[in-house]
Every structure is written in structure tokens, then in C-alpha cells.
Amino acid sequence: MYPTLEACVNDLERNGHLVRIREEVDPELEIAAIHLRVFNAGGPALLFENLKGTRYRAVSNLFGSLERSKFIFRQTWKSTQSVIALRNDPMRALRQPIRHVSAAIAATKALPLQHGGSVSGFKEVAITDLPLIKHWPMDGGAFVTLPQVYTEDPDNPGIMNANLGMYRIQLTGNDYATNKEIGLHYQIHRGIGVHQHKANRKGEPLKVSIFVGGPPAHSLSAIMPLPEGLSELTFAGLLAGRRFRYGYSDGFCISHDADFVITGEIHPGETKAEGPFGDHLGYYSLVHPFPLMRVKKVYAKQNAIWPFTVVGRPPQEDTAFGALIHELTGDAVKQEVPGVKEVHAVDVAGVHPLLFAIGTERYTPYTKVQQPSELLTIANRILGTGQLSLAKYLFITAEERQPLSTYQEAEFLAYVLERIDLRRDLHFQTNTTIDTLDYSGSGLNQGSKVVFAACGDKKRELCNNLPEQLRGLRDYGNPLLVLPGVVALEGPSFSNYADANQQLRELTEAIGARGPMPECPLIVLCDDSSFVGASLANFLWITFTRSNPSHDIYGVNDGFVFKHWGCDNVIIDARTKPHHAPPLVSDPAIEKRINRLFATGGSLNGVL
Predict the structure, then answer these.
(1) Which of 153, 353, 381, 428 is deepest in the core (most CB within 10 A)?
(2) Per-residue pLDDT at 328
């Protein structure tokens, strides 16, 4: 149990989980490139002791593996799991009262603890004194990537009604007044949005405190999907093994445990251009107006450490966050969505674009299951639940005669494709919301969804060889079998949807004219089929991050019956489109420059 971030750093070092970097490192691109190289090699956490332009140290890759994350929380892991399980299912306490007494006591002892209003232990500094880390070449400036953003409910103030979330913060660049203004980017379905809406309605500024550092449990608490009645600050105390200590100064909440605190206000109607930023889908999120925060004060402790991570095409460090959350929350989704057995937000596809789910079919137990029915009810519930509602693609089936896991992604997809009736089992939602960071849609936050629902007996054997119908198609080449029943096909570059509709009409007619092909239910039209077919991860990333279901799904022998669309073979157009954001690409000069740390005599020599 760590009272400070430095205590965690020292413990990780003693146990072989952290390496110190002595050399001066530039926070502009160099530090992020070092992190990415070490993370991708499965390396340790990194403490940067000599960061150019700042007196403060920085640490990264703390949560770079599930093993290291569980090591950090080894003393409080089981008790925290017990409390979350109890909150998810309060009836457990009635069924087994003695067994759950300790969980109830642990939750009570984790309540936040007010320590008066002073800021002793902190020194007042400026934004420009902080580690100003630029992660990717096209980023608009320096960003905070592990902030704990604290706001209180304007209608019901106090820490027990507060929201602690992780929303990226732009510290420099664009049109922000240096040391006076910063950008706050948050997406839809976030708690801070409710608080800002209430403040706007009152015509008042929303007070915001940004905590950086402190016990690692505080960072994790800012991203936890917690059960109703368990606040982020209580969870932080549970997982840290000590109560969250705080006070107030000038009306702003100050975490006494944090290494840094930035306070400020968001005024009604005030926005400025924020971004670009290399984001977790593997592309840049572009420049858009987001809330402007007027900086009041910036505090730092004497020996403060700045924690950061680098997001990009998954898997990245935030992948371990996701695995950690899954282990901690356990069966929470079963309580949230009745009838569901498992939901998997597929990380390599960018998390929000693609969900795999297992449900149940119990509506007519007296007859043999012939088609999805309860599964459709469950699918609608999933797509109406919190962050899950941002998904574009949902593949859902019922576990029947064989065990299934959504985490065995290739096998799960094959199970669905073997059983789906493509004329009956595709269900679209158009002109709806999708992830803010997903640029495949028709506008910011705007796009569509599709449900692929399947159950019952096998309807087809999936092909394990390339079907002859897909060879030698005019203007389309290099067809490759990606998975059983799934083929990637290269097409001409995408220019606009008018041309694409004509191209796909001709393509579907050409394939249809060659005869039935039930063994290949899914075709992916792409720019580079060799890349798509090189790995399961490439296929999932390209297909589901570069397509908008309503605009980019076509079908062989397709048609409508009473407004329901179906086909014989689905084609997903996953070509790059002009409105898509550019993918993240490292700077070769920076990659060459950081080699010095891995060479003989460098701090990272022999580490990887």
C-alpha cells in the first residue's frame, strides 16, 4: 500500500519491475518513443530522472502488463474485488452475511478523509514548469494522459457526489494563452458533462481540479466503471489501502495525495480548438472545439513525479488497464444487462468500434431455437448501456451445446458466421451516436450501428480456401483468405460515396453472376489485402475502424423485405476515405535518436 507515487516507484525498482533512465530525454517525441519501444517489447516501468525543460521526473509504463498492475495492488486486490462484487449484487450480503462483513468494513474505512483547507507540502508553479510531453509528430501540443479530473455536482456539491474521470488535457499549443488557459477534451457519456450541463443551466462556471500522480490506485479509479453507489474516491481509498485525503483552497478541491494539482474554471459557452492528438484507435483525433479551462493555480510537491502513458494503435498500456478492470469488476455486466453472459470490447479493434457478446435464448424453451429473439432484446440493452452504446458493430450469439468465449476472437467470429442468416439476422441503427474519436462516421459523434445476431444449428461450413468466385475480378485483386469464411479483397482507391456505390453495385453483381458462395459470408474490401491478412489484429483493426455500417456495408444479391435489408454475402468497405483521420506513424529521426539509450552504456542496454 503506497502513500505516494514515489513509494510505488521504489517498490517496483526493488522487485525488478522498473528501470531508471539517467540520460537527458526530450519530452517532445523522444520520451514517448522510448516508452513505446519498451512497452512493445514487454519491458519494465520507466523512471525518467532528467527531463529536458523541467525539474520534475516522469514515470511511464506503470500499468504496462497485467502482472505488474496486479503486483502494484497485491495487498488490496481481493478486498477490493469483494466490495465491488457486493455492490453489484447486494443480496450476497443477506445470503452470506458473515462472509461479507469484511468487505463492508473495508468500504467504510475507504471513505474520503478531509484534512482542512491548506495546500502545505505544495509549491505554486506554472504550467510551463511541468513536463510538457508531446507524444506523436502531429499532436497539437503537450498533453496530460493520466489526469484525474475532479468536478462536483453544482446542484448537490460535496465529495461524495463528485466525479473523478480521465479526460485528456492539452497544456500548450493552438490558441491557448500560455499558463492561463488549457484545453479539456471529454467524450459523450462522461460524468463531467452532466456537471457542466448543470453549471451552464445556472449560468455559473464549473470548478475543476486536475490531479496528476499520487498512489497508482487514484489513476485507476478515474477510469473505473463502478456500480451505482460506489464513488470513485471511495474506490481510490479501497484500492490504495488508505483513505483519499483532500481539502479545499479557494473553493477548489485539493488532493493531498497527488503530486500535482491544476485548478481552474470552465465558463458557459467557452471553447477553443483542441487537438490534434494521437489517440487509442490508432489514428489522430482532429481539431475540434472543446471546453476551455481558465487556469487559477498550479501546485507541485517538492519531489513530484509526473506519470504518463502513450496511446496509439492497440494494444498499448491502456490495454492492461482494460484487463485490470475486467478482472476487478468480474460479473458486473451480468447485473447491468439481464441475460448476458459475456461482453468483450475488442481491444485490437480500438475497443468501442467492435463488441462480441454471448447471451441467452430462453423465450421459447419448449421449441428448438430457430432464430435470434431474446438475443435481439439483449443486443438493444447492450447498445443502450453507458460506454457500450458507442459501439458500431455488435456480434452476438447464444451459448448452446459448446462452451464459447468472446476472448477467443477468431473462434467466436467463426461460430457466428457459421450460424447467421444474412437475410434475417442483420439489424441496423442509423443516424445515431458513435465514439467521439471514431472518424469513420458521418460527423463528430455521428454514425451508425449494426448487430450480427446468430444462434441455432450450423447453416454453412466456412471455406478454408479462397473461393473461385473471388478470383480474377476486374479492378479487384489480391484476394486473400483471412480467416475461415472471411476474404480480404483489394479495390481501387475510395474517392466519394457516389462512385463507391456504383463500384460496389458492379462488384456485387459480378460476384453474384458467378454463382452461390455460402461458404464465404464476409468479404472485406480494403486498400492492402496483404496487410489485412497478415494477422488477426490487422484484420480487426482495419475492418472495424475504417467502416461505418450504414454507409459501408454492401451485399451480394441484396434487397429489402418490409424495410429489412439482407443479402447472400456481406461486403464491408474498409478502404481509407477522405474524411478519415490519418493513422499514427512514428518519426524515423526520433527512432534513430533514442537508440543511444539502448546502446552499450545506455540506461536501457540489455533491458529488452
Answers:
(1) 353
(2) 80
Give the confidence band of 402 by pLDDT, cuts at 50, 70, 90.
Answer: confident
Whether the CB-CB separation of 441 and 581 falls below 8 Å is answered with no
Cis peptide bond upstream of 315, omega within 30? yes
pLDDT at 79: 86
pLDDT digits (tens, 9 = 90+) for 497-519: 999 999 999 999 999 999 999 99
Q: Are 359 and 397 in contact (CB under 8 A)?
A: yes
SS3 449: strand
Contacts of 360 (CB under 8 A, 6+ apart): 339, 340, 341, 374, 375, 378, 398, 399
Run of H or E residues at 60: strand 57-60
At 512, give phi and psi (nearest 5°).
-60, -35
Query: Three cell numbers at 58?
Result: 516522469
- Please check whether residue 38 is in contact with residue 292, taking contact to mean a CB–CB distance below 8 angstroms: no
Q: What are phi and psi of 93, to 5 degrees?
A: -65, -35
Consecutive H or E run containing 101: helix 101-109
Nearest to 446 by CA among 454, 457, 438: 438
CA-to-CA distance for 505 and 513, rounded, in angstroms? 12
Coil, strand or helix: which one is 351? coil
Residue 538 burial (CB count, 10 A): 18
Task: Output the pLDDT for position 337.
Answer: 87
How much is the pLDDT for 436? 86
Q: Give burial (CB, 10 Å; 0-12/13-18/19+) of 408.
A: middle
CB 266 within 8 A of CB 274: no
Which candidate, 207, 187, 206, places its Cα nearest to that of 269?
206
> Is the distance from CB of 162 to CB of 150 less than 8 angstroms?
yes
pTM higher than 0.90 = yes
pLDDT of residue 226: 74
d(CA 508, CA 504): 6
Higher pLDDT, 322 or 475: 475
Measured over the CA atoms of residue 575, residue 577, residue 581 and residue 582, the dihedral's sign is: positive
Across the range 578-594, mean pLDDT stands at 97
Residue carrying C-alpha cell 483513505: 243
* pLDDT at res. 204: 96
